[in-house]
Amino acid sequence: MLNVAGPGEPWGDEQRESAQLKLAKLKGILIGMDSVLVAFSGGVDSTFLLKAAVDTIGEKAAAITAVSPTYPEGELKEARSLAGLVGARHIIVDSNELDIPNFAENTDKRCYYCKSELFSITREEAASLGFKCIADGTNADDARDYRPGRTAASELGVRSPLQEAGLTKAEIRFLSRELGLPTWDKPSQACLSSRFPYGTRITGERLEKVALGEELVRSLGFRQFRVRYHGETVRIEVEEEDLKRFLDDGTRRTVVEGLKSIGFVYVTLDLQGYRSGSMNEALGK
Fold it and tell me: Which domains does the chain carry?
């Protein structure tokens, strides 16, 4: 279930006031940046950041999205729509992580190589267009997970205004709802490369299988889930409250038949349920 507080929900006045104070702090940070190019995926965090930037500094804020094999086509379409909704200039650039040395090998530094490429492209665009700063949607909660991409951001001078303002995911969802953003309850997203265990080579064919698998699960009405690639086996994570519905005979058969037609041999359901960054659980072992 999405962790968000809105009017009439469990949060009290003190919590709502705290979120508003952090929003004011965010706006102060953006004013200090003067002009900013936002690395924009169309997710909850980057959409909120882009909206706040446009509301605060107007045309001095713009969005940039990198199109690549790990970025689902549906997400690009939605990102275009969201940028238009908040009134932001939207720049589209091409990138192919599979061509980046060390990325396809999928070591535990994969995210570092990916972000280094993305932010290098973004820096070039920012310089050519006259933007003083680059920003991403990292929030205050992200420090709890293993994120080597943060090192790349630091090396390339990328700012994280949401994190600087101390905004948590729940607060961002709450404020997004207050601002009328349709992303306030959007499921958390991550690039398709996060569906592969470290050490499993990432290829275009494998990315396509995962993308097709997730399209199938989404078409059955599941919102927050992951289709994880384990060679011939696919491991599906859905939220705990969806486990029973997933095991309904009709749904189960549809998923099994669909995933086998895509090319998987074995279809499994993770009984622990959906959790962000579950592939990182193996790192400590």
Answer: 13-185 (3.40.50.620), 192-282 (3.30.70)
Which 8-state DSSP code applies to residue 92? Answer: E
SS3 of 153-175 = HHHCCCECHHHHCCCCHHHHHHH
Using the structure block, give the residue that is written with the tokens 């909850």.
Answer: 44
CB contact at 8 A, 93 and 66: yes
CA distance 259 to 80: 30
> What's the pTM?
0.89
Q: Looking at residue 126, what is its pLDDT? A: 96
Give the tens place of pLDDT for each residue, 222-237: 999 999 999 999 999 9
Phi and psi (nearest 5°) for 101?
A: -55, 135
The more confidently predicted of residues 262 and 69 is: 262
Give the list of residues 6+ apart from residue 105 with CB closer than 8 angstroms, or none. 201
Model confidence over 102-130: pLDDT tens digits? 899 999 899 999 899 899 999 999 999 99
Q: What value does the mean pLDDT take over residues 276-280?
A: 78
The answer to whether residue 219 scores a pLDDT higher than 60 is yes
Distance CA 260, CA 234 (A): 10
- Cβ contacts of 124 within 8 Å, gap of 6 or more: none
Q: Are 73 and 111 in contact (CB under 8 A)?
A: no
DSSP string, 43-83: SHHHHHHHHHHHHHHGGGEEEEEEE-TTS-HHHHHHHHHHH
Phi-psi category of 277—alpha, beta or left, where left has phi over 0 and alpha has psi -120 to 50? left
